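Encode chain A's predicted structure.
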Amino acid sequence: MPQPVSPPYEDERTSERISRYCRELLDRVHARGTAINYPSPDHMTLRSFSLGEVAEILRVSDSYLRQLSIDGLGPTPELGTAGRRSYTLRQINELRAYLASARPKDALKFWPRRREGEKQQIISVAAGPARTTTAFYLVQGLALQGFRVLAVDLDSNGSLSEMFGYCSSVMPVRSIYAAIRYDDEQASISTVIRPTHFDGLDLVPGSFELSRFEEESARRYVSEGSKYSDVSVRFVSALKEVEADYDVVVIAGAPECSFLTVGAFEAATGVLVTVHPKLAEIAPTALFLNLFSHFVSLIEKVRRPVNYDFIKFLVIRHDPRDVSEQETVALLRDSLGDDLLTATVWESDAIRVARLKERSLYELSAGAVGRSAYERAMESLNSVNAEVMDIMSEVWGRPPIYVSQVSRSTTAGKAKSQSRRLSK
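Encoded structure for chain A:
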């Protein structure tokens, strides 16, 4: 008697069934000759910068840069309509190297990269509102100022990575999981570092693998009798492998309660905590600090001291005209003193519009979001980044220069905005 034939797929697991749906849908689309266009970092490019913008970035005069170009010194800019000159970020960095060599007394101004004996700065942008956006603008701002930067995305959804074109939900990307996993397949972090469209800025993407790592870490934690996890040691060792390649590492996106968070806190040399200036948001910030303290105490209990160069607080989404927010900022200032950054990130339609365009304001021209809104937002962002860079300079034993330079360039920019539009 013939055996009954099982219906197709009767024995498949749920995960296999879902995968089958995926394959069948994609096969049908392909069969109809329709291309599937996944977002790709290869399609992301960074605009060129006008001569006036480059002069402001390098803090030299327009006429000086124009004369360098005429004399054939430094990289050759692209000539556009009416002979207007523009430079790529790579060319700006080439200009930095040339100016540092030609003007050795100003070498630090033009070429701020870490010197021998200066330790790498590892900044953890801790859990808080807009932490991903904060990290996004910080790493891009640092790259524009000539630093070698590595961004590490610890979000299993890859929020920061998507801003650079790496979409883990539709394209396979490897995360720091590869460098800190517990089995024999552990690899060097250098195998997962990816370039971005910003010269001097690389990325360790975030992906679903990070959720798997959290699950594995939790199982080990329980099975070993709630002993301290060795994830922190793995995290520190992974970053140590590429210490010579970067001046600054910015870590972003770890959930508040996670083993990755502990690893980020131990690896960090400094911590940046974002705060929304609403009274209702102060309590969640305080509760996070309690959790932060607990995590650090876990590290200290195993006799690994945690000595940060700085813990700073940054006010974000700030409406300086709102009286209640002014009072909240004053409260924060009274409580935190100099550990609250002077600069704040203003509430800005320009930043929101840029996000909708899947770009940052650094990547867009003023016309893309409106000149007035663009200039206000850029003043705010540049002031925050300048303050962070001055903190780094202090750690390295250098004189602070960035805040004063941003202040001067902002004042000069208002006076010269019309003439810069005509820069050639």
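The longest strand covers residues 270-275.
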